Amino acid sequence: MSEFVGYIISGLVTGAVFAVMASGLTLSYAATGVFNFAHGAIGFLSALLFFELTVGLGVPAWPAGVVAVLVFAPLLGYVLHRAMFRGLAQAGETAQIVGTIGLTIALPALGLWIVDLIAEPFGLPRADATSLPRGLGPYPAVNVTLGGVRLDSDQIITFVFALLAAAGLWAFMRHTPYGLRMRASVDRRRLATLRGIDADASSALAWTLSSTLAGLAGVLAVPTLGLDSTAFTVMLFVSATAAVFGRLRSIPVTFAAGLGLGVVQNLVAGYADFAEDVTGLRTAVPVILLFAGLVVLNRSRDRVAGSAAEDAPPPDYLADLPLWRRRLPWAVSLVALLVWTFTRPADDFYVGVVAQGLVLALIFCSFVVVTGIGGMVNLAQASFASMAALTCGWAFSSGLPFPVAILLGVLGATAVGVLVALPALRLGGRILTLATLALALLADQVLFQIDAFSNGTIGWPLPALGLGFADTTDPRVRVVLLLALIGLVGLLVRNLERSASGRAILAVRSAPAAATTSGVSAPRTKILLFALASGIAGLGGVLFAISKGSVTATDLPAFAGFVWLAVVVLQGVRRIGGAVLGGLIAAIFPELLATWHVSAHVGAILFGTGGMILARHPDGVLAQMAEGRYRRRRRRLERTKAAAIQAEAAPAVRAAAASGPDHPGEPAVPESDALFRLENVVAGYGDVTVLRGVDLSVRPGEVVALLGANGAGKSTTCAVAAGDLPVTAGRVLLDGADVTAWPAHRRAREGVLLAPEGRGVFPSLTVEENLRTWLTDPGPVYERLPQLARRRGIAAGALSGGEQQLLTLAPALVRPPRVLIADEPSLGLAPLVVAEIFEVFAELRERGVALLLVEEKATAALELADRVAFMRLGRVTWSGPRAEVDDTRLTAAYLGVS
Amino acid sequence: MGRQAVRRRPGRLVGLVAAAALAVAGSAGCAAEQKAAGTGGSGGTAGVTDTTIKVGGVLTKTSASGYSTKDAEIGAKARFQRANDAGGVHGRKIEFVGAEDDGQDAAKGDAAAKKLVQKDGVFALVPVHGPNFGGAVFLEQQGVPWFGWATGPQWCGTKTGFGYNGCLAPKPGAGSQTWWGNQMAELLGGSEGKTVYVQTTDSSGSKYGGKTISQSFEAAGFKIVGINSGLPAAAPPPDWLPYVNKIMTSDGGKAPDVVVSIIAGTKFNVGLYSALKKAGYEGVLSDATSYDAAILKDPATAQALEGVIAAPMFEPFESTAPEIAQLKADVEKVAPGTVPTQHLAIGYWSADIFLKVLEQTGKDLTRERFLAAANGSFSYENAGFGRIQYPKDHSEPNGCGALVKLEGGAFKVAKSMKCFENVPLK
């Protein structure tokens, strides 16, 4: 057998572990929209447990493997879902990225810390990253020759398990109701909950499964990687490459790409000797592939010109405070810091620590520009700082004057920033983050390994910065200089936010397409942001090197950027204040831990757990404090406001009802009769109150038509009825029971079905799968509606509008709900189709369903309705039997004439 | 109008940035010498009283990769304890405050050095032992002596950094060791017609190691048939096949007589050796890091490393030399039951050399006088580490080393500590 074929076969076998890891990554991303950077860390923890079980407690390998992979890993996934991922799915992209990066730092530290704590009393071995522990198979591994290729037992076990996992995953997703629910939740999460699918439970399942896959990959990889959390993170990046080639959607493609990566690595190792002179190039092959894959395959489709993260800027909670009150805490802290600094001696250790913190703060300011203002998450910030420092050191050592060297350093970083911005023009969100990560790793592994640039491992010496009267060897001088520079950056940021450029940035961030049509150049804006941010990071990097007196390529590793980002975002990335606080914390906190003799793992755990806080409060600690005060101020206000609206609504409704001649002063329907009832409901979105005391009720076998002009609050009423929108005040009753607190999926399961505005279908599921989300056997539907039977294998998104509406309502025919709420069912349909739809409604009424029909176009609805309610400005202004509706009333309802 | 405004403003912004940058550069004016900040009155006698000398170390106790040199603390402590039990040096006892952890992070090492000097007020740093130690520039500025294992170029050419066996990262032109090749040649009964393959990882540090060590074998008369630096530096490759194929065919289609691995990390070596043995390699395996009693505990690791010839830069613990018996006794006193390791020995011998310099400095102790004594043709011989000469060994290794063979699951001394002439590094 030729060497080449040997490399390919052996590569396929070893690529299996990437395939397993990458499949889990793709699964959790596709199912929940959160790209889990901590996927490798979960694998590490499982491997750690496996190691402690086998080596520490002497449990045989197979039972230990079952405990680590099938018990511990799923449990960890579930716990993480409850504690963090659930909140993250609703948070912005920045919070998602930072949250899972925080976990990457915290999880391994937590595991190692626990092992450190219990190692002594239980006589367990400490995790030793330098040796290779045993895997599932025989130990030492047994060698087998298969078709001319020598494989060991661990390799074969890995390959077999990878195939089993892939087959199991495929069967689960395609052929079980759980898989169907998960896919439905991915497709249209909101609709899925309206169909009674607990989307939350689906994501819990997705995290559990993905975590199991990570655990499996971890246990399979540990005999080749060792118990080394960094190695697991590296493996995650390699796997991310496979996931990216599967476009983060397709598990089979991801799996194949994972196998392919094993082959590519073997071929590079076997034949790429020409790359020998460029140190790091061969190591960096997966990273290069990752970057290429991101740029070529993952051009974001739905966001034109690769916009930024989708998080809207939060409200300014301090807006109602006077200016002096807003600035007071900062001014006081600044004065206190300066006074303290100048009462200390020149070689004081703690002033040095504070100065170091301020250097970091200056670097962190660049996060404020690119992430806080620009909404793009950049993981290459440490590389920018490193680039500037190395360029400066190189220039100074080549004999250039120091100021020129500094300027060159900053310009060098800026230039690299512009280069990084180029992929940013095409990519958005997580993809951009991954791309910056790839570039940062590339810089670490290749660029900074060039001896001529970084001067090998020794680096460049740098002189102190002389200011004429003092120089930066005195940490007090550094503190003042850095405070001045941060102030300058602060002014710059403020100017940027308030200038036309700031508005342009905001425009590009929130609506790229609109910004482009308004003549705002998105590429220019992004390049500006990246250039500015990398310039600031570069300046910080140069000062870092100056205060240290030297710079080496390993001073500011790419992974430092992870921790930095977590720290800054935790303090609040939108304000310079957050950056300053973050910098000081990053420098002072580890010193404090060391002084108190607390394990360094604890620091990592705390920094990392910040991610969990972030899942709940995406705008950081500073905003959190302001928000807390704001909420307290608002809460009472809101409560009284809702009560006032209700109080105002009650007499108004009574008056409206009283105006009907046949029902003087009576509620429209006696309470006992109504199956479904909204009682004086107040609801809205954020600060806007839409429903201002709505009373509405439906009896079984009755059609109530809810009519009203655009903006009257009809769709909001539907959302409240289905549980899609929480109420501020009032009650929702089903058969006399208070269901106000029930989530949408629970109401759906109890028989309250909403056919939402637009089409209520899952476009990427087939017709058959769509039906199965509500029915166990779709057979009767096909008998009743043969046109759907002919299309059962087709994706619902490919059906015509009428067919989609039929598909939306069809399941209700077979398994009638107790209450059906149809929001604009005739919207955009041909008259013939509308007639067919209304036939369905009539049939449902015959079968005792309580129907609430919401229509803007009154005619068709009026033909069917038993009772009619008119809405205007968030209130039901009139309700009564169909017979009493005449043209005058209709006109009054729509035109607001009473 | 609006469009124009949007277009015009970035220009202004860029101007502002440039102005800010210029302001910094302008205010900087000139480069100032990095010097000791504030002499603070302590002068060169910081950490010294009439009865004590305060000393602390910086080690890589923890690291992301798991590499740890923490045993050096026990070694130094054991040696200091013996000195104290003997009444100290010139009436002063060593007050050892322990070692800080730099987490294999240059910036943390710098902070640790600053903390020891500025906050704890130590006289000198002993032992300093971390592959990425970042406090070199600071210590050199402050004139604080530091003793340890000089594996990185930050040690070399300084006046204050004392490697216990010299500078192991000499610049081109400076002396480079030949002991490994020569000891191996003596062990194998001559180097005539024998071939050597050197495997390193894909990083500049490891490549540099490959260069010096292949030169060592060349100087001893071996023929180098390959230096491969293809191994990924961050983690072992999932598949060793391509690397092993290269080695197995490097000597004109045959396997070489000796494979030298310049990879830090037992797991790399275990992976490489297991794969080589799987492919039928029967020659000599040699590396610098496998001499570690802890790895014998694991049967598979011991099996993979069986027959390997490790190259420690100190007298092996299995040696019958009285200095080694003394070392073991000292360690047993401060930490009973400790199995001696490479890092422990490094800490021990670093402390030993520091004490020797203290002794030669005399009763009147300042950092200046200490450095003058150490750098004024200091020479010290000891069977434990060979010999050391400063200032010569500030820029080249001391040229001494031993060989240990793992045989039947136990280490045996193959060649005792011996010093050889250095040759200039190409």
Decide which structural class fits the backbone of chain A. alpha/beta
Q: Widest sheet of chain B: strand order?
A: 9-8-10-11-12-15-16
Shape of chain A: globular
Report the sheet-strand fraction of chain B.
15-25%
Distance between the termini of chain A: 92 Å
Unreliable runs of chain B, pLDDT <50, ≥5 residues? Answer: 1-16, 25-29, 37-41
Strand order of the largest sheet of chain A: 11-12-13-8-14-15
Pfam families (chain A): ABC_tran, BPD_transp_2
Domain ABC transporter (chain A): 676-898
GO molecular function, one term (chain A): branched-chain amino acid transmembrane transporter activity
Keywords (chain A): Amino-acid transport, ATP-binding, Cell membrane, Membrane, Nucleotide-binding, Transmembrane, Transmembrane helix, Transport
List keywords for this structure.
heterodimer, A: 898 residues, alpha/beta, 34 helices, B: 426 residues, 5-stranded parallel β-sheet, 12 helices, 37% helix, disordered N terminus, ABC_transp_permease (chain A), transmembrane (chain A), ATP binding (chain A), branched-chain amino acid transmembrane transporter activity (chain A)
